[in-house]
Amino acid sequence: MDRYDVVILGSGQAAKPLALALAEAGRRTALVERAWIGGTCVNTGCTPTKTMVASARVAWLARRAADYGVRTSDVSIDMAQVRERTRRIVREFRESSQAALAAQPTIDLVFGAARFVGPKTIEVALTRGGVRRFSGDVIIIDTGARTRAPALAGLDRVPWLDHVAMLELGVLPDHLLVLGGGYIGLEFAQMFRRFGSRVTVVQRHAQLLPREDEDVATALRDILTAEGVEILLSTEARQVVPESGGLRLVCDTAAGARALTGSHLLVAAGRTPNTDALNLAATGVAVDARGHVQVDEWLETTTPGIFAAGDVKGGPAFTHISYDDHRILRANLLHGEHASTRGRLVPYVVFTDPELARVGLSEGEARRQGRNFRVARIAMNRVARALEMDEAHGFIKVVIDRDSDQILGATILGVEAGELMSAIEVAMMGQLPSAALRDGVFAHPTLAESLNTVMSA
């Protein structure tokens, strides 16, 4: 049995940079990957979906060309070409990551399915056949998460799709039914509506994106509805029935039962951690009711020397959070620091068009915490650059502490919202008062100069 300084299970956005840092420090490291290097983000998440979102936006702009005084011929979609472009970019990212890992002599890259057979002993059923067993002084679990299949009657009788299968479609759905009104469901709903599909979103909550303020969710719903996406709120899917050429989804609504007929069904109603096959019972590592690995603020599990990073531990399931997990583990394992997750900002972007971006507290969260705050808000139609681009949907909303003038959070629904939010996040990191952005000199005409306006509101 081989022994390593560190064994990493999974190769997501925490694992790869951490393995490289360990290698540079001379630590003998085994990295075990069941399928593809890069984890969800590179292979089935951020990279492919945002590549397809870009294709859908080009189609949308082409259809809107007349709004800009540009005449075009009819727009058609070649889904096979869209898929091939996506595959190419994913392949380039994946191969680049694998090459970087393989180039390090102190990294042993192992492909196969891992399970614990002791507290720090791992057995791997190798992809190419055979079994390897090894142990590590330190173990890091970064096995990610996958789509959770809901308890929906008849689901096992229809060829339903998750976001991974959607990426491989070579044909355009005639009528796509989307189960779930979270960020995955909404990105795919708008994307395929722009490609030309009829799309219906079934959301069991009273609003889209339940964690957002109601005005934000309502504004995004109105934008999607204006593009032709049908959105059913407070609607519970009860049964799915196969039909010739498609399926029928039976739902309960406030107005009574309703049956939806579609050609394809996308299930985007939650994720489940990839821990069920790890045999964590052999380690003493605790998990919650959903199977997420439990960690403290230093990312250590209930078993000393075993850590977890990324989506497998629950909490915010974002690539940049996984990457920050790597920073914490690198600082503590290699440099003896005491870095932790305490107080870290959690920015995120929903890549609808326009984007929805948020960092820090929402208005509702600030109110529930009893903060003494004010809300600075402007509509995007007050932003010159947005008007010039004919992209003036949405608004900017900033939550500001009345006593200190510190920015507590910002929510932006608008063109390039992620970039604007990031500028505000930098101000928050530097503890700048809102007055510093109000009085800052930003180039004209840029979206950034909207920070002058909103902080004055």
Automatic annotation (TrEMBL):
Keyword Flavoprotein set for record: yes
Domain of life: Bacteria
Sequence ranges assigned to domain Pyridine nucleotide-disulphide oxidoreductase dimerisation in this UniProt record: 346-453
Database matches in SUPFAM superfamilies: FAD/NAD(P)-binding domain, FAD/NAD-linked reductases, dimerisation (C-terminal) domain
Keywords recorded for this protein, A-Z: FAD, Flavoprotein
Domain FAD/NAD(P)-binding: 4-322
Pfam families: Pyr_redox_2, Pyr_redox_dim
Required cofactor(s): FAD
Entries under InterPro entries matching the protein: FAD/NAD-bd_sf, FAD/NAD-binding_dom, FAD/NAD-linked_Rdtase_dimer_sf, Pyr_nuc-diS_OxRdtase, Pyr_nucl-diS_OxRdtase_dimer
Annotated PANTHER family: MERCURIC REDUCTASE
Family: Belongs to the class-I pyridine nucleotide-disulfide oxidoreductase family.
This protein's name: Mercuric reductase
Organism whose genome encodes this protein: Nannocystis pusilla
